[in-house]
Write a structure and sequence with these properties.
Distance between the termini: 50 Å
Oligomer: single chain
Shape: elongated
Largest sheet: 4 strands, antiparallel
Helix content: 25-40%
Order of helices and strands: EHHEEHEEEEHHHHHH
Radius of gyration: 23 Å
Strand content: 5-15%
Mean pLDDT: 73
Number of strands: 7
Strand order of the largest sheet: 4-5-6-7
């Protein structure tokens, strides 16, 4: 019967770092299978021992050799997985941003019933900043020039939202997730309206943080900015 070992044990037996172990997988030197529940990888002990006897494969590393795995994310070849679930498949299935964020935080996809069931999508209803926090965030960015970029506005919005958040000093997981939902939603709602044909933050006819009734949606473009920042495609404000 095949003995299966985890990544840490396999890396220790080979005398390599976990990143090197997964580069062996991406190059076809080692095979692996998913652990029960889709969390982590398992390697055949016999195959690992055979590789250890042969010695490490020597080959100049190529730019395309990339395999990264953590408890949250795995990047291997052309695949990106969150908590063992394919990111492209999550998008194709219609899972909303809010549900994938909860998956990253907790390891559980809240909309388990799936899209199209007629039920509310996951926990989207909890994504709302308090009125006091929104007032603070909007006031913080109101004095910025009209051409200020959204990410630059977020650098002043986020501290204001955080200062007004009642859960800011509580570090237990439920409180942290509640604060995260509030701040992410507030980041969108505090951005000024985007005039037609203009990028968010470049509205020519209204002061930043102006009345949404004057034209445009204060969240227009904002959700895309925040999604990109959270995905790593843009700098996280304040970092």
């Amino acid at each position: 019967m095949t003995e299966w070992i985890d990544a840490a044990t396999a890396a220790r037996r080979l005398g390599v770092k976990p990143a090197t172990l997964y580069s062996y997988v991406s190059r076809g030197v080692l095979n692996r299978r998913r652990a029960a529940g889709g969390r982590g990888s398992r390697f055949a002990a016999e195959e690992v021992e055979a590789l250890a006897r042969r010695g490490r494969p020597r080959r100049r590393r190529l730019p395309g050799d990339l395999a990264i795995e953590s408890a949250i994310t795995e990047i291997s070849g052309s695949r990106l997985e969150f908590r063992g679930l394919d990111a492209v498949a999550l998008a194709a299935a219609g899972h909303p941003f809010e549900d994938v964020a909860v998956l990253l935080w907790t390891g559980t996809l809240p909309s388990a019933a799936g899209p199209g069931t007629g039920q509310p999508a996951g926990q989207a209803a909890g994504w709302q900043a308090a009125a006091e926090a929104l007032a603070a965030g909007r006031a913080a960015q109101a004095g910025l020039p009209a051409g200020t970029l959204p990410l630059e506005r977020l650098q002043v919005i986020v501290p204001a939202l955080a200062a007004a958040d009642p859960f800011r000093l509580q570090l237990d997981p439920p409180a942290v997730m509640t604060a995260a939902r509030s701040i992410i939603a507030g980041m969108v709602d505090c951005l000024p309206p985007a005039a037609a044909g203009k990028a968010p933050g470049q509205a020519p006819s209204e002061a930043p943080g102006g009345d949404p009734a004057a034209g445009g949606d204060p969240a227009a473009g904002g959700d895309a900015v925040i999604a990109a920042a959270l995905a790593g495609d843009a700098p996280i404000p304040g970092k």
